[in-house]
Design goal:
Order of helices and strands: EEEEEEEHHHHHHHHHHHHHH
Distance between the termini: 80 Å
Structural class: alpha+beta
Helix content: 55-70%
Oligomer: single chain
Radius of gyration: 29 Å
Strand order of the largest sheet: 2-1-6-7
Length: 405
């Protein structure tokens, strides 16, 4: 079997490293600085480890390269030869020209990629300090050194609880509106107006919440959002006593507070949760909304029967204030802002998240709205929300009017 040898000078190892592999392989057998090497992927453009080797085949040759994280540099020198069991043979001129042409293109790609990666890599290395040597190692062994509760799990759990309170405060009106309509003599149109007023404010802060989170930090925006909608929820009985316009304003203001929850949460998780854990974390946080809906619909009737309809607003609103007391003392917008996180976990999070940290000054609306994929997401999201909120808002009224329950 023919094999091709490439010799690369790795800056991290301080000595030339030679790799030899059969054509078609994607892994270099030699360790770099005493550690197994892992593949960098197509054209070496995705970083998997600070000490890594990559073997790429182009019909008749392979190339092997080492990437060092500390120097944030790539150094390779190629020496192509063809070998077989019968001895060494020089490459044919046409094959050598093809290899040299491809290698020059590959070097240009690596140079462009190095220019893109150097600033964020240097920033991460400086912030990680002396522990930077292992910060880009995504192997499970890196996590074995960490024990106990992780700080990022605290952020995920608190976001889960915030989303649970979000929907508890949202659906309690679906139950409380029945005794409220009897007390104030509302007809079906007025009930619909009260139910829909929440979405007037909810619509206003969907985009603004993301901009504010980038500028002021997800901790501040989400925390103030929860306090805002919790106070609006607790003030709902007082607003209802003052009159229908005041109640509509209180519900709209509650929507303003809840509108920032999703963009602020996504901003937080993009900075706190590594990419490999992000889908599970998002699933847990979003499940809080559905658990909150179930809890709100299940607890509200018993609370109304025992303490009257104002109790659901007072109790659910006060839970948000309790949540904020924990949030203000235990959360941070980024791992860099957290004084309680360990250096090892901080380095791991910074190495496995790709966030620039710069506030978004302008939104490319024209570019976004010109993409059919964006419109597909908008359509699917609209259909989902239409069905979900129709059921959450009107299902209790339907059961009451049709089944008298």
């Amino acid at each position: 079997m023919h094999a091709v040898t490439a010799s690369c000078g790795g800056l991290y190892s301080h000595q030339p490293i030679a790799c030899s592999a059969p054509v078609g392989t994607r892994r270099c057998a030699l360790p770099l600085t005493g550690r197994p090497t892992t593949g960098l992927g197509q054209a070496g453009l995705s970083i998997a480890s600070p000490r890594a080797a990559w073997v790429h085949d182009v019909s008749t040759y392979s190339s092997c390269c080492s990437l060092t994280a500390r120097a944030v540099s790539i150094s390779c020198s190629s020496a192509y030869s063809s070998s077989s069991s019968g001895g060494q043979h020089a490459l044919q001129p046409q094959q050598a020209a093809h290899a040299q042409s491809y290698f020059r293109q590959w070097q240009q790609q690596l140079h462009r990629r190095r220019q893109q990666l150097a600033p964020p890599l240097q920033a991460r290395l400086m912030s990680a300090g002396d522990d930077a040597d292992g910060m880009f190692d995504k192997s499970p062994q890196f996590l074995e050194g960490l024990s106990g509760w992780r700080r990022r799990w605290t952020i995920v759990l608190l976001c889960f609880m915030a989303f649970m309170l979000c929907n508890m405060d949202r659906v309690n009106m679906s139950i409380a509106v029945l005794p409220m309509s009897q007390q104030y003599g509302w007809n079906t149109q007025t009930i619909g107006l009260v139910q829909s007023s929440f979405f007037w404010g909810y619509l206003l802060t969907q985009v603004l919440g993301g901009i504010w989170a980038d500028r002021f930090g997800g901790k501040v925006v989400l925390g103030l959002g929860v306090v805002w909608w919790s106070l609006a929820t607790a003030c709902t009985p007082i607003a209802a006593q003052a009159g229908l316009p005041t109640l509509l304003c209180a519900r709209a203001l509650m929507g303003v507070g809840e509108g920032v929850a999703m963009p602020a949460m996504n901003n937080l998780l993009s900075r706190w949760v590594p990419v490999a854990e992000r889908s599970r974390s998002l699933a847990l946080v979003y499940s809080g909304m559905f658990i909150g809906s179930i809890a709100g619909l299940a607890l509200s009737p018993a609370m109304i029967a025992a303490m009257g309809w104002p109790s659901v607003f007072y109790i659910f609103g006060s839970l948000g204030i309790v949540w904020y007391s924990c949030w203000s003392s235990r959360a941070a917008s980024t791992p860099a802002d957290d004084t309680s996180i360990s250096k090892a976990e901080k380095a791991y999070i910074l190495a496995n998240t790709n966030v620039s940290g710069k506030a978004t000054l302008t939104i490319p609306w024209r570019q976004l709205l010109s993409r059919k994929e964006v419109w597909a997401i908008i359509l699917c999201h609209f259909c989902h929300n239409w069905g979900t909120f129709i059921l959450l808002t009107w299902m209790p009224t339907y059961y009451n009017q049709v089944f008298s329950c």
